[in-house]
Amino acid sequence: MRALMILLITAGAASADTKDAAYQAVAVKIATAHTCRDVTGDPKPYDAAVLEAPTRLKAAGYSDAEAQEKLQIIVSALKPADTKAITPQLCRDMLKAMQ
To answer: What is the pLDDT of residue 15?
Structure first.
């Protein structure tokens, strides 16, 4: 019985880690695309990141409602970017690295 309890706790922790990692990856991708949209004026990478976010979150184990809630949290936290320090080339490189 103790081994089963440890296995269940371990599986739950791994599941939570996967969900958290997916949420963080989605947040980073959206934030990067948002910043690059401000730098380059191209909305396509941001729009694509926002559209794919629910699918990625659901694949990690979030329900539809949870995925939408997490997406709303990410999008509502975005602020205008400081475009002085980021070049269009840097944006292209960052977005390419996240493909």
So the answer is: 52
